[in-house]
Write a structure and sequence with these properties.
This protein has helices at about 1-15, 20-25, 75-90, 90-95, 100-105, 115-125, 130-145, 155-170, 195-210, 225-240, 250-265, 280-300, 315-330, 345-355, 375-385; strands at about 185-190, 215-220, 240-245, 270-275, 305-310, 335, 360-365, 370-375. Helix 5 runs antiparallel to helix 6 (about 115-125), helix 8 (about 155-170) packs across helix 14 (about 345-355) and helix 11 runs parallel beside helix 12. About 45% of the residues lie in helices and about 10% in strands. The radius of gyration is 34 Å and the shape is elongated. Strand 2 (about 215-220), helix 10 and strand 3 form a beta-alpha-beta unit. The protein has an eight-stranded mixed β-sheet with strand order 3-2-4-1-5-6-7-8, sandwiched between helices.
Length: about 400
């Protein structure tokens, strides 16, 4: 940005007129003799502007100095801190229903007894950690209590935190999106209606374009005209191309044409939007298999990512959705939306433990930057951040 200002300012200096020698040495014109009689109401004659040369002072041009940022400005740590703080704030509902209730339970307690463990079990289940996950957490607590490794409730809280962190980080698949050595990186996005699938696609596309990648969006949800229109709006926002056909067209046909375009135009990333469907509709789930086969036929080893979008507010129903979609198209990554609007954020822990599928992104708001890359350590720290601490 500063370089642009330098160019504009430098160009403007070059255009400044400089006085010539002829103008500077021009003799003064002879003044006419004054009349013998003077009219008191007449104005004195104006000098001839065309023959009067006013020399311009010489302008000394000093070289432009680069902008020096004061030492007190530290944007990177401040940005990182603010991003973490926003994550912590957006998880406030889950923290109120989970961590703060644990803090209240442990407040003033100096020892761990059966009543405390029973109350803790209720808190964990109502936060949507699930029955089996809750049982494993409490079994770990009982084992440590029996070995006298738990001195007080605060020590128990640390044990819960580390065990939850282990659940989230234990997945059978790599947590990073790995770009192929050749050809476009293809992401096939699936999920039921109403989970924020198309909006998430638009935000993921924004992330790739911001990173300098060329993106192609594919509107394979041909059952709803609104879905195609919504994806085109996101295409315009991100200045990326959207491949679509008429409403009611064969989704596999749209995908087939899009793969040809992606190869011919050498796109870096292709994101395929599929029709939202209930996970219990077998015939519609079969359509997903067909789309996946078409992609693989055009680009070997694709789709490189089959991403399932889940609404965190649905709680345990999200587990059922994930299991059935996984059985149909082999899910490789998850995105959890609307975490800012639910007290059931514990579903993140349960999904990671039950499915062992990595979470790629979490949605914590409506803004573009509110689709966050999922960092297990950051998530756990934000979840367990003490009340009132920055």
């Amino acid at each position: 940005m500063l370089g642009w200002f330098k160019k504009k300012f430098g160009k403007k200096q070059e255009e400044l007129p400089t006085p010539s020698e002829e103008q500077l040495d021009l003799p003064e014109p002879a003044s006419p003799e004054p009349p013998l009689t003077t009219d008191l109401f007449s104005e004195p004659p104006l000098p001839d502007l065309e023959t009067t040369a006013i020399p311009e002072p010489a302008v000394e041009t000093a070289p432009l100095q680069p902008l020096v940022v004061p030492d007190r400005v530290e944007p990177l740590p401040k940005k990182t801190s603010s991003l973490f703080q926003r994550l912590s704030e957006q998880l406030s509902k889950t923290k109120e229903a989970f961590v703060y209730r644990i803090d209240t339970l442990f407040l003033g307690k100096k020892e761990i007894d059966l009543e405390l463990l029973d109350n803790l079990e209720e808190i964990l289940i109502t936060a949507d950690l699930g029955v089996s996950t809750t049982e494993e957490l409490l079994d770990e607590a009982r084992r440590k209590l029996k070995r006298k490794e738990l001195a007080d409730p605060q020590t128990l809280k640390k044990v819960l935190k580390e065990k939850i962190r282990a659940f989230i980080m234990e997945t059978d698949r790599p947590a990073e999106l790995v770009m192929p050595e050749k050809g476009p990186f293809v992401i096939m996005v699936v999920g039921v209606n109403g989970v924020g699938k198309t909006t998430t696609i638009g935000k993921i596309a924004h992330k790739f374009t911001k990173a300098g990648q060329s993106v192609l969006l594919v509107a394979a949800d041909t059952f709803r005209a609104a879905a195609v229109a919504q994806l085109k709006i996101w295409g315009e926002r991100n200045n990326v191309r959207v491949v679509s056909q008429n409403e009611g067209a064969d989704p596999s046909s749209v995908v087939f044409d899009a793969m040809d375009i992606a190869i011919a135009k050498d796109y870096d990333v292709v994101i395929v939007d599929t029709a939202g469907r209930l996970h219990t509709q077998v015939n519609l789930m079969e359509e997903l298999k067909k789309i996946k086969r078409v992609i693989a036929k055009k680009i070997p080893a694709a789709p490189h990512e089959v991403m399932l979008i889940l609404d965190a507010t649905t709680g345990q129903n999200a587990i059922s959705q994930a299991k059935l979609f996984n059985a149909t198209v082999d899910i490789t990554g998850l995105t959890l939306t609307k975490l800012d609007g639910t007290a059931k954020g514990g579903i993140v822990v349960n999904i990671c433990r039950e499915l062992r599928i990595p979470i790629r992104f979490i949605g914590i708001g409506e803004q573009l930057e509110d689709l966050r890359d999922f960092d297990p350590g950051e998530f756990v720290e934000a979840l367990f951040q003490e009340k009132g601490k920055p």
